Automatic annotation (TrEMBL):
Upper taxonomic lineage: Bacteria, Pseudomonadati, Pseudomonadota, Gammaproteobacteria, Lysobacterales
Protein name per its UniProtKB record: YcaO domain-containing protein
Ranges in coiled-coil conformation: none
Domain YcaO: 74-445
Superkingdom: Bacteria
Length: 445
């Protein structure tokens, strides 16, 4: 037997961080459920997209006892990294749901101490005035607020409690909580900074997609390698990349859209990422697109009967992820696919090395903070790491920004408030549809 074969036959010893993570995800008495590999279909072969390397998906099952603990998934070029990522995401949500937060009533805080819900890009006044709207958000003295810190100077500001953790710490939820702006990373050198950076980048990514989608903004196309396009076309599919970077955002936002048929049926999905380096953003968006392909086939194969076919019936991100696989005739009509010129982003050659992320985190986060600040965009943060999640070797961070729009899962309640309609502020000169909001649901799972 060759040396390489011997090495392949010997189980690889997990790293300490991986050992700690999976120790918290045991079948009995674990904090979360164990990660399981999600087998790809033969039609999910990646060909030249990742230099011939296989993409691995893993997920931790939903916990029916906790509505905030849906399926947690991750994608990576190594099976162990995908499993680690799935468990880390589940622990991130656990911490966000259970972290202890001091809460104070609205009337116990002065206007200078707090940011009211009206300061955030949530729902418009006309939405909240609708008789059957799920989140009318009347302001009362007894409404509860939790503390966050300004990333600029660490001063304490109080915001509605639902925006900090997942769900309220006391009383009933007055507005929806979201996992956008939550991130976790290993508790190593610069790990907390990288979690903060990834949480902030996720906010920017979701703002870009929400505003692009709701306003029907046409996509600025990014030229992809010819062999990638040929690979998709040979399989009856399509592959597009779009530059969704906001005018004031120094970190590129890239969306990858398209599909590869499975079982002879169309399958249309989208992946998106925000990173400081455009090559890294494209790589991550492509991974997310590949994950979405596998997930759409998995959902539509096993849960097809329960998934809605009408846009107005969508209530979860899972349903959004599967929608255009169930309604492929709507995909060509999407405003994103209209021609809006080419992006000026300069991409590195395919296969270019991506340097380790953690050592760059502090510099990239500071650059982001300064550039966004010049555009009037403030960032706030709160660490949500609980003792048991810390024992698993993770740091969990929440980042929020009043100026940025969020991405909705419930089609009854898209986030139309704040500057959601201000396309020119984000994308000066880029054409967009006059209809608002765009009637087509977004495809992000």
């Amino acid at each position: 037997m060759s040396h390489a074969a011997v090495q392949a036959a010997v189980p690889e010893t997990p790293t300490l961080s991986s050992h700690l993570l999976h120790g918290a995800a045991r079948p009995r008495c674990g904090l979360v459920r164990p990660a399981r590999p999600i087998e790809a279909n033969p039609c999910d072969a990646t060909g030249p997209l990742f230099e011939g390397r296989r993409v691995h998906n893993a997920a931790t099952p939903a916990d029916p006892a906790n509505p905030w603990q849906g399926v947690s998934g991750a994608v990576a070029l190594e099976a162990a990294a995908a499993a680690d990522g799935a468990v880390a995401e589940a622990l991130e949500r656990l911490a966000a749901a259970q972290a202890g937060l001091e809460v104070r009533r609205r009337d116990a805080l002065t206007p200078t101490q707090r940011l009211d819900e009206s300061a955030f890009a949530l729902f418009s006044a006309s939405q909240r005035a609708m008789p059957d709207f799920p989140w009318p958000m009347p302001e009362r003295d007894e409404d509860l607020f939790a503390a966050v810190h300004a990333l600029d100077d660490n001063r304490v500001v109080w915001v509605p409690q639902e925006l900090v953790g997942l769900g309220p710490r006391s009383g009933q939820a007055r507005l929806p909580s979201t996992s956008s702006g939550l991130a976790a990373w290993r508790d190593g050198r610069d790990g907390a900074w990288l979690a903060l950076l990834r949480a902030a980048q996720e906010l920017l990514e979701r703002d870009a997609l929400a505003v692009t989608w709701l306003n029907g903004v046409a996509g600025r196309r990014i030229a992809l390698p010819a062999q990638w396009q040929a690979f998709a076309h040979e399989r009856g599919g399509e592959l597009h990349a779009f530059d969704l970077t906001q005018h004031w955002n120094p970190h590129p936002v890239i969306a990858v859209a398209g599909g590869i048929p499975f079982e002879g049926r169309p399958r249309h999905v989208l992946g998106i990422a925000c990173r400081a380096d455009p090559g890294e953003a494209l790589h991550k968006a492509l991974l997310e697109w590949q994950q979405a392909l596998t997930f759409a086939a998995h959902l539509c194969g096993r849960e097809r009967a329960r998934l809605p076919r009408e846009p107005s019936a969508l209530r979860s991100f899972d349903e959004h992820a599967a929608f255009y696989t169930l309604r492929p005739e709507l995909w060509p009509q999407l405003p994103l696919l209209r021609v809006a010129g080419d992006s000026t982003l300069q991409l590195p050659p395919p296969g270019a090395a991506i340097p380790p992320a953690a050592p760059r985190a502090v510099i990239e986060l500071d650059q982001l903070r300064r550039r966004l600040g010049r555009a009037g965009i403030a960032l706030y943060y709160r660490e949500l790491t609980t003792a048991d999640v810390a024992a698993a070797g993770l740091r969990v961070m929440r980042v929020l920004s009043p100026a940025l729009s969020g991405l909705h899962a419930d089609e009854r309640a898209p986030f139309l408030g704040g500057r959601c309609r201000d396309v020119a502020w984000r994308y000066p000169g880029v054409p967009y549809d006059g209809a608002f909001p765009n009637p087509f649901p977004h495809p992000l799972g």
